[in-house]
């Protein structure tokens, strides 16, 4: 059974600091990796996608993938109070279209 | 960007009745749409994959006769919760992928909050 693990938090980070979110996955055949942000009562919003080992940067966000360690992370630089939300790690396996989600990390940015 | 809509955004129904939820891709064609369910303080769980012009593929443990999925066109998929019970109360979210453009990202609709009384 495919599993995606995240620390549920809450993770509290001062405004302006770097927030680091981590995720591990069990299926070595996984091909695509995503980070979604979800505000309370809302649906997930895609933040980043990453498909190959290494880093991928987009604005204040950097996703990191290490397939050998089955590990994905998301760094948020210059954290803002509006970044406070639950961050969901999602994985798509080879040949499968649906996403397997982790339970999410609740991030709190303290002003 | 890719926009997915859902209707209704919330619905309250009585136990034993059926509820239909629509999911539309507004600015792209989606050969595949997905239906997820999220209970309070839980993560999203994939219920089924909806394929245009063919039968849906259901995840293990999801009753296909209870959750009817119809993907009638490249921009519309519907989920009908039949004979709803209070335990079906949840946040139902659809997503779609612009497979024709070769994209891997899934874009989510705003969700439908179902309450069964």
Secondary structure category of chain A: mainly beta
Which word captures the global form of chain A?
globular
Structural category of chain B: mainly beta
Fraction in helix of chain A: under 10%
Main sheet properties of chain A: 6 strands, mixed
Roughly what fraction of the amino acids of chain B lie in strands? Answer: over 45%
Total DSSP E strands of chain A: 11
Residue runs with pLDDT of under 50 for 5 or more positions of chain B: none
What is the terminal separation of chain B in angstroms?
37 Å
Q: Most extensive interface, residues per chain?
A: A-B, 20 and 20 residues
Could you state the order of secondary-structure elements of chain A as H and E? EEEEEEEEEEE
From the structure provided, what is the oligomeric state, counting identical versus distinct chains? heterodimer
Number of helices of chain A: 0
Question: What is the radius of gyration of chain B computed over CA atoms, rounded to a whole number of angstroms?
Answer: 13 Å
* Residues in β-strands, percent of chain A: over 45%
Mean pLDDT of chain B: 92
Mean pLDDT of chain A: 94
Helix fraction bin of chain B: under 10%
* Count of discrete alpha- or pi-helical segments spanning 4 or more residues of chain B: 0
Low-confidence stretches of chain A: none
What is the tally of beta strands of chain B?
Answer: 11
Short description:
The complex is a heterodimer of chains A (111) and B (117). With 111 residues, chain A is an all-beta fold. Chain A is 0% helix and 56% strand.
Can you characterise this structure?
By secondary structure, chain A is mostly beta strands. Chain A contains no helices and 11 strands. In chain A, strands 2, 4, 5, 9, 10 and 11 form a 6-stranded mixed β-sheet that branches. In chain A, strands 1-3-8-7-6 form a 5-stranded antiparallel β-sheet, with no helix packed on it. Chain A is globular and about 40 Å long. In chain B, the strands form 2 sheets. In chain B, strands 2, 4, 5, 6, 9, 10 and 11 form a 7-stranded mixed β-sheet that branches. A 4-stranded antiparallel β-sheet of chain B has the order 1-3-8-7, with no helix packed on it. In chain B, strand 9 and strand 10 form a beta hairpin. Chain B starts with a strand and ends with a strand. The mean pLDDT of chain B is 92. The chains are: A mainly beta (111), B mainly beta (117). The interface between A and B is medium-sized, with 20 and 20 residues.
